[in-house]
Amino acid sequence: xxxxxxxxxxxxxxxxxxxxxxxxxxxxxxxxxxxxxxxxxxxxxxxxxxxxxxxxxxxxxxxxxxxxxxxxxxxxxxxxxxxxxxxxxxxxxxxxxxxxxxxxxxxxxxxxxxxxxxxxxxxxxxxxxxxxxxxxxxxxxxxxxxxxxxxxxxxxxxxxxxxxxxxxxxxxxxxxxxxxxxxxxxxxxxxxxxxxxxxxxxxxxxxxxxxxxxxxxxxxxxxxxxxxxxxxxxxxxxxxxxxxxxxxxxxxxxxxxxxxxxxxxxxxxxxxxxxxxxxxxxxxxxxxxxxxxx
Amino acid sequence: xxxxxxxxxxxxxxxxxxxxxxxxxxxxxxxxxxxxxxxxxxxxxxxxxxxxxxxxxxxxxxxxxxxxxxxxxxxxxxxxxxxxxxxxxxxxxxxxxxxxxxxxxxxxxxxxxxxxxxxxxxxxxxxxxxxxxxxxxxxxxxxxxxxxxxxxxxxxxxxxxxxxxxxxxxxxxxxxxxxxxxxxxxxxxxxxxxxxxxxxxxxxxxxxxxxxxxxxxxxxxxxxxxxxxxxxxxxxxxxxxxxxxxxxxxxxxxxxxxxxxxxxxxxxxxxxxxxxxxxxxxxxxxxxxxxxxx
Lengths: 294, 294
Known about the structure:
CATH superfamily of the largest domain in chain A: Periplasmic binding protein-like II
Number of helices of chain A: 9
CATH topology of the largest domain in chain A: D-Maltodextrin-Binding Protein, domain 2
CATH class of the largest domain in chain A: Alpha Beta
Strand content of chain A: 25-35%
Oligomer: homodimer
Largest interface: A-B, 51 and 51 residues
Number of domains of chain A: 3
Number of strands of chain A: 15
Order of helices and strands of chain A: EHEHEEHEEEHHEHEHEEEHEEHE
Shape of chain A: globular
């Protein structure tokens, strides 16, 4: 039976692009039959389908270099307790402007997902100052609004424009050339290790913790525990605990494998300085054609 | 001339509610004429209008207890360099479901701003599993889509429902009872000190810094500098530097006034451990009827 991969749909989203790249890599490196892609209406629903066993993997965006964290991915991992990160991949993001006109002045509104609208805001302000920006649930969804009169444009990927046979009127409209998104490949915690991790790829471990309430400087101790063991943290992200304003859960990516003795000793010490501590997995960044090594 | 206050519009948004509460407080505490509210199409445009001198103040959401940071407020402060936080206020958030039907089963889609959709997700999943969730640019904007057939609902505030004369079919649909949003009152850096800070209110100082690239454990030192001086950090938030994936700007709220000698000495030491360091202001949390002391 083929592996099933859930992702934010419909066809043409960046999440689908990441899932396609992953499916290519998986087929080549395992010689198994090609995985089946399962588009879902939201990122949360994709993760829930993996948590419930409907799908075996989810390809979920974690972080964009411009717009920052995808909080639903972090919050869902923290809440569900049954998901594990298996691999990571980085996809370069190139946005195109899609409309049925060659005249930028005729465009009155631009539809897209909130992240691409944020990633193109300077370009939009300069070149389309008259246009209203309308956030919708996915870049592919935005394409539905592109009208015959050329008054409504959408921002999506080149692949989406091709899939829906719509004209691209401007390429590379993202404000920063180095725009990329990191995705996690996620399975159930106890899933079989069918997905072979490539050798000689650096391993990263992701975890999250909440801190005892009202202890000044409480974050300092966890950071010191890693620093004392020369474990570099490549990312620290705070999310609300959802209990009270000012209470947070900290998400951390550490540049070390969970199995190492330093990491195990760090975890042991962490338990006495944190309230709740959850490890989401220890995994490699996989190198895929069309994705990036960063 | 009356004070002008920019906020995310149109009438009926939570930002307008915060601006109204602030205008009441200002009128009472300064005995000046009532400020004029200036609704703007986006949070960024409200802040830009204050930066350019078109308006004197902006009331800008910073953080919600459930959905977390409002990144556009943080990013705009970091980028513009001419804005200063003068005060903070906390507004309790109560969402209502608005539709022209009494039958939840007839609702096929729910429109709202992405933050309220996130804050009501469990309620929506349980009570309206059939409905598609559609993010739009503001809660007030969502009301435009409420249809006569009762197939489209919106999530907004009670005030918005009243303003637009639309029926409320369910109150308090937010998933967490303790749902509130913190707002900052922002002026130009060199604006006259027309806005009197109330005495005996605790003062908080907000700042942000980037760290030298590729220095492991670089965040530890800034945290230690505050901890050594017994200055508690009530919030630490990372945002992408927008240069490269894995490079961040850290936003920090410290529970101390900028003028104190400890804070000055902390700042001095910070400059040698950070790359760019910006202080956004030292300001009180103001107590307003209908807002919260937390």
